Amino acid sequence: MTDGLVFGTCSVGGLDATERLIDLFDRLGREDVQRVMTAGIAPAWFNLIDLARLEAAIDRPVIAVSFEESDGLESVLRREFDGDALSGRMAVYDQLPERNRIHVTDRELFVRSIGITREETFRVVKSHLEDGLLEPLRVARIAARAYRDIS
User: Fold this and answer.
1) What does the angle CA 84 – CA 97 – CA 108 come to, to the nearest 5 degrees?
2) Burial 14-48 (b: 16+ CB within 10 A, else e)
3) C-alpha angle 93-14-80 in degrees, rounded to nearest 5
4) Is residue 58 within 8 Å of residue 25, measured between CB atoms?
5) 16 Cβ partners below 8 Å, 6+ apart?
6) Of 3, 4, 42, 86, which is most buried by a Cβ count within 10 Å?
7) How many domains does the chain have?
8) What is the CATH classification number for the domain harbouring 70?
9) What is residue 37's three-state secondary structure?
10) What domain range is 111 assigned to?
């Protein structure tokens, strides 16, 4: 059930995604939010989300869900960036929690979480499945597309 939305942007290729998410959470003003779920860790061309910083700032568990298996972002980051741009991203990337595979219905998802156990992460993810899709992330995608269309 969706019970509130806030909108914001982060810069493509920047390093402000974490700050924008903290701002969105603060603007939402909902003390009853139990956890935050994101679709991946890089919402805008390697603008990485610092999951530990986000969790500390909002004082809620954070779950990042990926939908495809990969070797990770390190080699791509090293190819696309250098100097301070690379070191800033690697500082965030290197401290991310381990990515765990979870089998749901007929597919696999890959999750990172902080502030919540692996077992509880799996339970939460499975509890939000509807027709094989993660409902909170599906709704967020629809809302983001609508926002993009009017802005």
Assistant:
1) 115
2) bbebbbbbbebbeeeeeeeeebbbbbbbbbeebbb
3) 65
4) yes
5) 10, 47
6) 42
7) 1
8) 3.30.2170.10
9) strand
10) 17-150
Across the chain, which has 151 residues, the per-10-residue mean pLDDT values are 88 96 96 95 96 98 95 96 96 96 88 97 92 86 90 75
| Position 139 in a domain | yes
Q: What is the pLDDT at residue 148?
A: 85
pLDDT value at residue 33: 94
Contact call for residues 100 and 110 (beta carbons, < 8 A):
yes
How many of the other CB atoms lie within 10 Å of CB of 134?
A: 21
Report the chain's terminal Cα–Cα distance, integer Å.
25
**Could you tell me if residue 54 is inside a domain?**
yes
Task: Report the alpha-carbon distance of residue 37 to residue 39 in Å, rounded.
Answer: 7
Q: Give the three-class secondary structure for 109.
A: strand
Cα dihedral sign, 128-41-148-107: negative
For residue 8, being part of any structural domain is answered with: no
Instruction: Report the alpha-carbon distance of residue 69 to residue 101 in Å, rounded.
Output: 9
